[in-house]
Amino acid sequence: MRYAVLGTGQAGRTLGGKLVALGHEVTLGSRTKDNPVALEWAADSGGGAGTFAEAASFGEVVVNAVAGRVALTALEAAGAANLAGKVLVDVSNPLAFEDGEARLSPVESDSVGEQIQRAFPDARVVKSLNTVNCAVMVDPARVPGGHQLFVCGEDADAKARVTAMLGEFGWPADRVLDLGGIRAARSVEMWLPLWLDLMRHFGHADFNLELRTSR
Amino acid sequence: MRYAVLGTGQAGRTLGGKLVALGHEVTLGSRTKDNPVALEWAADSGGGAGTFAEAASFGEVVVNAVAGRVALTALEAAGAANLAGKVLVDVSNPLAFEDGEARLSPVESDSVGEQIQRAFPDARVVKSLNTVNCAVMVDPARVPGGHQLFVCGEDADAKARVTAMLGEFGWPADRVLDLGGIRAARSVEMWLPLWLDLMRHFGHADFNLELRTSR
């Protein structure tokens, strides 16, 4: 498969590297064509690098791995025509640190996942992976137990495709919980403050939640 | 021990009933002295019923089990003097349904736990139990596995006392995670939207999260 991974931060590079290692063709997208981080990643991984628009044009599936607060700007640069009809996996969180405090925006009445789906109605947005650290995203065996991920979005086929991609990452389908439509992006984005407190509590990011249920 | 449980909803009645069953003296507090729900609970359980102020005056420990959005009003009726120096366990969530949608207020920049601690600086507020259904609160064996609860608050001794109360409910101390100061009330209150989506997903409320960690 051809993947576009938008964003050259740790999440983008990690996801892009894993997809290349799995045998996929990957273009890492960034704001400028000559982004040194993207070029270094491409040289190291065997993937490609380009602008957001070049990456999105290349990919059959687009992964949004830029920070949630700039996701719309990056996706506008990618171009609606390059996203139309495609599965668009949003792994971002609307996190910013203000005066040393972790803050979320949007929150509660909206979410990045919903913002993206509204702005790009022809893209098939699936929110996933934002609930774990990027090392865990692509290597769930770092954490013991039957811990879980979530997917949500309006398009059942897109969610099935993302669940298959997660399977390639090492997440069995029975550990991927479908929360319904894209509105549930609010819920999984609002997990982040507790995740941050837990990271402080444990002293590392190799953790995840396993849902225990009576039946 | 003498407990005040403020609130005659399902959470208040369930917590009060468990505390009576454990051998404690409990007064269930409500806005009015002749609240029929409270009087019926008292007759059934062997506990007592009274106004918020009567209950808070009676209790050595006060449990806030009124809805988060009216917690401050109830606690003002209880009276700052009746709360001063006491452990005040806040189990509430700032939930309301507006136009059929679950909404949280305060959220993200504040929490009910923090509001209560600010308004009653002499009370020793501990946020806990709000992350699970009230049936699970007092009977964790309803859910299999080593699933967990959180405590947070400014007073270490108060958190230890609440952890001991949770132990009486069936939660071993190693399943109670201390998230630090009362600010973490934001994080555990923001778990609620995901909890609601999961309740829809599972079709029942007998579930909880178990944190899985590499070390």
Give me the oligomer status.
homodimer
Which two chains have the most extensive interface, and how many residues on each?
A-B, 39 and 39 residues
Low-confidence blocks of residues of chain A: none
Shape of chain A: globular
CATH fold name of chain A: Rossmann fold
Major sheet characteristics of chain A: 8 strands, mixed
Which CATH C-level class of chain A is it? Alpha Beta
- The percent range for strand residues of chain A is 15-25%
What is the overall number of helices of chain A?
A: 10
Q: Give the full name of the CATH homologous superfamily of chain A.
A: NAD(P)-binding Rossmann-like Domain
From the coordinates shown, what is the CATH architecture of chain A?
3-Layer(aba) Sandwich
Q: Number of DSSP strands of chain A?
A: 11
What does this structure look like?
Two copies of one chain form a homodimer. With 215 residues, the first copy, chain A, is an alpha/beta fold. The first copy, chain A, has one domain: Rossmann fold. Helices cover 39% and strands 24% of the residues of chain A. The first copy, chain A, has an eight-stranded mixed β-sheet, with helices on both faces. In chain A, strand 1, helix 1 (10-21) and strand 2 (25-30) form a beta-alpha-beta unit. In chain A, helix 3 (52-58) packs across helix 4. Chain A is globular, with a radius of gyration of 16 Å. The termini of chain A are far apart. Chains A and B meet through helix 9, helix 10 and strand 11 of A and helix 9, helix 10 and strand 11 of B. Strand 11 (207-213) of chain A pairs antiparallel with strand 11 (207-213) of chain B, so a sheet runs across the interface.
